[in-house]
Amino acid sequence: MLANALANAPRAGFARRLAAMIYDILVLAALVMLAAGVAMLLVQVLAWSALVNLSGYSDIADYLNTGWRRWLYFVYLLAVVLGFYVYFWCKAGQTLGMRAWRLVVVKQNGLPLTPLQALARALLALFGAGNFWLWLRWGKGLTLQDQLTASQMVVITKEHSKSLNVHQRAG
Question: What angle, 0 to 180 degrees and rounded to 10, lies between the N-to-C axes of helices 115-124 and 68-91?
Answer without folding.
Answer: 120
